[in-house]
Amino acid sequence: MSERYSDAAQPCFRTDVLIIGAGQAGLAAAYYARQLGLKCLLVDEQAAVGAAWAERYDSLQLFSPAWASSLPGWPWPGDPLRYPTKDEAAEYLRRYAARFGFDVHARQRIVHLRAIARSGYEAFSQTGSCYIARYVVVCTGGFQAPKVPPMARQLGAAVTQLHSRDYRRPSQLPGQGPVAVVGSGNSALQIAADLARTNRPVFLAFDERTPALANNTLLWIMLRVSGLMRASRHGRIGARLHQRPEPVVSQDLRQLRRLPNVQWMGRAEAAVDERRLQGQRLITSPLEAVVWATGFGPDFGWMELPVLDERGYPVHHRGLTALPGLAFLGLPWLNSRDSALLAGVGRDARRVMRALVAGQMAPVEKLNPTSVVPR
Fold first, then answer.
1. CB proximity list for 30: less than 8 A, separation 6 or greater
2. Which of 102, 220, 222, 291 has the most CB atoms around it within 10 Å of its CB?
3. pLDDT at 1 over 70
4. Is residue 275 part of a domain?
5. pLDDT (average), residues 353-368
6. Is residue 98 included in any domain, yes or no?
7. Residue 372's pLDDT is what?
8. Is the dihedral angle over the CA atoms 95, 96, 99, 102 positive or is it negative?
9. Residue 225 lies inside a defined structural domain of this protein
10. Do 133 and 197 share a domain, yes or no?
11. Of the candidates 177, 209, 199, which has an alpha carbon nearest to the alpha carbon of residue 290?
């Protein structure tokens, strides 16, 4: 457990390792910190471990089977061949934290992080709590700020707009008229199918060049045996994979194409007027709503440290920064394709925690800002 200090102004906690974010990356970091004999403390802005999963859209399932989705030290309980729901994922993370007795401070959003002389780092939460640690591992997820294209601002107030982060279920969107889902990832396909099942017209702005792969046991065995998911983007094979678009699940793609109320409009290009979008193939009917499944950008403005590029993205090499004792985990392609996945974050966490304790930092010659931004 962490040691607590206090003064008249605010409580202050001192620990060996401060882990910012208690999701899958943070829990994996805590596991390996414990293995190394370090005291660690996790802080998270959510009310409970796993809440970020629980608050996703109702129909969400993991894109990997349970047997390929475990954190270090504890496999998923239950049928290993199933694809767990988002609520099962939340429960698994909650039970994982409880199983290992990790010290988690909930409802503590870090708003300021700085280096302090001879002591490592000092962080402050929105409640005024202070945390001092020799090592800090930032595990706040695969970027946090929803990205919406400029065309969204050209749509009028009559069109309800949601980002996929805020979408939960079809009843959030008013009426029964046309809706558009904009995006070329698995979330866009799942949300479009969710809305189409209500029988309302759905326009899907999807890039037809996006590759698709079958998602089944054979695929995951092949990926595990071949090591493709673990190939570092700093190597020849990993670098080639990193340059390719992320594939979607081919089964989901086929099922969606069979639905008569889904129109494929191609990649969205512009807003025609206050209610319609122009795609590569067609122009939508007047829309009642749009769901933007268009990804996320960085939100690290609370870090008063020289580890971000001019666009706000972390500058690191395989998670390590140029500052001693400071690292990132859980970012897309932090090192490999599975760096942000439940099954892969453990490998990164083990390597990064050992490197921090050994006093290693990122080689300056390998810190190329243009190479750390996701495609």
1. 17, 19, 40, 42, 97, 100, 102
2. 291
3. no
4. yes
5. 86
6. yes
7. 52
8. negative
9. no
10. no
11. 177
Cβ atoms within 10 Å of 197's Cβ, excluding its own: 13
Question: If you average pLDDT over residues 90-105, what whole number do you get?
Answer: 97
Domain limits for position 340: 3-144+298-371
Angle subtended at Cα 255 by Cα 254 and Cα 260, rounded to the nearest 5 degrees: 105
Q: Domain tally for the chain?
A: 2
Please determine, for residue 2, whether its predicted confidence score (pLDDT) is greater than 60: no
Predicted model pTM: 0.91
Q: Is 360 part of a structural domain of the chain? A: yes
Residue 375's pLDDT is what?
A: 52
3-state SS of the chain is: CCEEEECCCCEEEEEEEEEECCCHHHHHHHHHHHHCCCCEEEECCCCCCCHHHHCCCCCCECCCCHHHCCECCECCCCCCCCCCEHHHHHHHHHHHHHHCCCCEECCCCEEEEEEECCCEEEEEECCCCEEEEEEEEECCCCCCEECCCHHHHHCCCCCEEEECCCCCCHHHCCCCCCEEEECCCHHHHHHHHHHHCCCCCEEEECCCCCCEECCCHHHHHHHHHHCHHHCCCCCHHHHHHHHCCCCEEHHHHHHHHCCCCEEECCCEEEECCCCCEEECCCECCCCCEEEECCCEECCCCCECCCCECCCCCECCECCECCCCCEEECCCCCCCCHHHHCCCCHHHHHHHHHHHHHCCCCCCHHHCCHHHCCCC
Examine the fold and report which residue of 256, 290, 324 is the final residue of a domain before the chain moves on.
290
Angle (nearest 5°) at CA 47 between 328 and 166: 80
What CATH number is given to the structural domain containing 179? 3.50.50.60
HSE toward the beta carbon, residue 90, CA cutoff 13 A: 17
Same-domain status, 303 and 351: yes
Q: The tokens of 76 are what? A: 């998923």
Is residue 181 packed enough to be buried (19+ CB in 10 Å), middle (13-18) or exposed (0-12)?
buried
pLDDT tens, 208-247? 999 999 999 899 999 889 999 999 999 999 999 998 888 9
Which residues, in sequence order, are CB contacts of 310 under 8 Å at separation 6+?
Answer: 369
Clarify whether residues 284 and 308 are in a common domain.
Answer: no
Q: Which two tokens stand for residue 367?
A: 């810190």
174 pLDDT exceeds 80?
Answer: yes
Across the chain, mean pLDDT equals: 92
